[in-house]
């Protein structure tokens, strides 16, 4: 008996030590729940369709319909939508078996029984409880799941067989800064040469943008960017430093910041949150 007491006390001490370490380093560490890897097969590119996403959309629509028809006391339509809701709710466990224990099957059964009995107030209570259960899971997993499976993976993109995406982006940044440096220091020829390299690099980048932006004839560089490139070339030749700075700043917003605001932030967060870390890395932090 004494051995069990010592064992339990030891476990409590270990838990308190871990909690103390986490609390002490709360400004350096964030705890998140990662979705199971089996979820990947229900998203592109492993699947041809966004199956998981569409099931979620169906559930949201069905819960709204059940609420609406319960409030209207329209049993015919209520039965139809409740049946669909039950089917797609249980499909969650079919797709990701490890999440079976997260489903509130008792509440689902209560909802179905209330619908069958035409007890509309109980049906509303049940569907609201079911929504709370969904919200709880979303709080834990929704953001990270979206980052993991709905954010492009730029690490696998190649501009050419000998040039990867990240290296090309670094070159473009270098060219933008070189234009600014040469412009301020009166080196017009170098600024124009760097602008020419930047134009070519932007065209090369635009060829891979069409892999995702299929409906746009030329998403990058678009006409507004090209007009700014022309204006910048003109101001580098004959304009003032103020005009040169204005054109280069406009180009940086159009050609860099807008795309980065959509892709770079999401991609960076995805890489940070989904990369596997060694024990040594975890201990270091």
The gist of it:
73% of the residues lie in helices and 2% in strands. The two termini are 39 Å apart. With 285 residues, the protein is an all-alpha fold.
Walk me through this protein's architecture.
A two-stranded antiparallel ribbon has the order 1-2. The protein contains ten helices and two strands. The longest helix has 34 residues, at 241-274. It folds into two domains: 37-144, Four Helix Bundle (Hemerythrin (Met), subunit A), CATH 1.20.120; 154-284. The chain is mainly α. The protein is 73% helix and 2% strand. It is extended, with a radius of gyration of 28 Å.
Could you name the key traits of this structure?
285 residues, Four Helix Bundle (Hemerythrin (Met), subunit A), 2 domains, two-stranded antiparallel sheet, 2 strands
Distance between the termini: 39 Å
Largest sheet: 2 strands, antiparallel
Secondary-structure-based class equals mainly alpha
Overall 3D shape: extended
Helix content: over 70%
* Count of structural domains: 2
Please provide the ordered H/E string of secondary-structure elements.
Answer: HHHHHEEHHHHH
Rounded to the nearest angstrom, the radius of gyration is 28 Å
Low-confidence stretches: none
Query: How many distinct helices?
Result: 10
Kindly report the spatial arrangement of strands forming the biggest sheet.
1-2
Residues in β-strands, percent: under 5%
Number of strands: 2
**Average pLDDT across residues?**
88
What does the secondary structure layout of this molecule look like, with pairings?
Layout: H1 2-24, H2 51-72, H3 75-95, H4 105-117, H5 120-149, E1 158-160, E2 163-164, H6 165-184, H7 188-209, H8 223-238, H9 241-274, H10 279-284
Antiparallel strand pairs: 1-2
